[in-house]
Each structure stands twice: as structure tokens, then as C-alpha cells.
Amino acid sequence: MARTNKTTRRTCRQVNSSVSITPTSPRRSQTIVDTPRRTRLICAAESTAGKLPRKELFKAYGVSESTGYRLLKSKSTRRSERIHNRGRKRVLAPYQCDAIETVENASFQFAATSHYAIARAIGLDNGSERAIRRNMAEYGVGTFMAQQKKFISSTSIEKRGIWGFDRRYWHLNDFKRYKYSDESHFACALQRQARIHRRRGTDARNAPKKVQFRFKRRNQVWHVFAYIGWDFKSKLHFYTGSGAGGRLTQVDYVTILEEVVAPNWDPNWVLLEDNDNAHGTRGDADNKCKQRRNVWASVGNLILQSRLI
Question: Which residues lie in Basic residues bias regions (predicted)?
């Protein structure tokens, strides 16, 4: 039987030079960011535009710069353009969330009220309290502990400014003569720190409508008096006044002046009080504290005159 022509192995193993066999790395996959994080990032970028650098914003939300810029460029909270029919629908639209936030920024009382109460008051209670709270959190308005500050009236602020303006040319030696006295009060129970609704950041925390001012508490049971000055500190004097709740009265204050202040007092010193009612500095009527000050002033002048002589 005659042999037929067959393709040899060498012919089959010839390499086709037109096909490149250089290995190529696959394309790097994009970071997948879920829809809630996309929503929060886009809303935060809109609210902090021009106030917070983008790098800090991306770092706060845990995304890289390339991913963050890609999400902001897309302007979509979805990962694809197709219509999604999965997941829970939003109860509040963005403009409705903005309306609730505007009301909460109007005053501290509204900021300390629940989202659901505000939404119900303006007719936007389309869902449950939990759903409205979740939608507001996705919009960027969270719940935080309020910053507390001591309340100072506008009259006191104006008087302090005038006092400092009148003494703007004083030197350090001019202030060394003054001794500043004050009373402190301690409570045995805590005052509740309010929880308010606001956005993240120091600007929102220090906003005047988001600050909780501390007024005088009724549960204060420990009272202490002291006075300080340049390179000087007096001892703490604990007392229980004869007023309501152990408050200080003018009779008690005169006793403190005689027993605590007078023994170590220098005639060259000037005592600056905080204008409390018990100090007897308000009004033009005569009282025991003013009489005692007049006696001290006359004695001080006599001592100064004797030293000069």
C-alpha cells in the first residue's frame, strides 16, 4: 500500500508571527461603592462646595481620590443607568429634606426636636419616624450632642467691651493692683445635654442656633468663694449662705469680706467684684456692703497718707 503525504509535526509547530503572544495585564476593575455611600458623598459634596477640600471629603467617606472624582463626575447615585426595581424607596425627596433642615436651623428648640415632629408640623410625614430619620441621615443631617456654653447677656457683652476699650492703653503694672473675686457653685446632679440635628463639621457645631447655653442650675449645693490677682491666689472658702438654696446674701458677703479678705488685704489693692446682687453694687440705694466699702476706703487712704509722710 502506497504511503500518502501527511503533515509533519514540524510543520504544525511553526509559529504564526502575525499573532502577538506578549502577556498583557487585565484592566484594573473600578472600586464598587454602594448606593447609600454614593448618596451621602454627593450630598456632602453639594453642601460643602467651596468650604471643604475634596481630598478631605473623600478621606472622611473612605474613598480614593480617583473614585471620588469619578462619582462626582457621574452625578448619579446608581452604579448603572438602568432602572432599578430593588431596594427601599425614599420617603422624602431632596427638596423635602432641605425644607426640614431649614426649619431645624431656625432655632435651637427646633434643632432639638425630632425629624418626624418637624416633618409632621410642615406636612411632610409621608412615612414612619424611622424612615424619615434614615432619609435625613442619608441627606447629611445627623444627630449629635449639643455644645454647651455659659449664657452671657448682650448687656454684659457690651459693658465688657466698653471696659476693655477704656483701658486699652494700660500697661501690665496697672493691672497688678487689681484682685478679682468670684463665687462658684457645684451641682450634685447632671444637667441633660441636648441632642440636636446638624451636619458634620466645626462650623455647624459652633453655629449660634446649635449651641446649648447653660443657665444657673437649681440643684447646686456646694458654694465656694475665692479671689485672685497677679502672682496671687487666695484659699478656697466654702460657705452656705442664708439665702434660698444656700445662696449668698449681703450679710453673708460682709462676713466673708471681714473674715476671709480683710486679714490678708493690702491697702494698695483694688477689689473687682462681678456685680452680683449680694455684693450690693447695683443701684444707688445705701446698703451694708457699701457702708463697709466706705470704711475700708477711708482707712486705706489714711494708711497711704501715713506712708507718704
Answer: 1-12
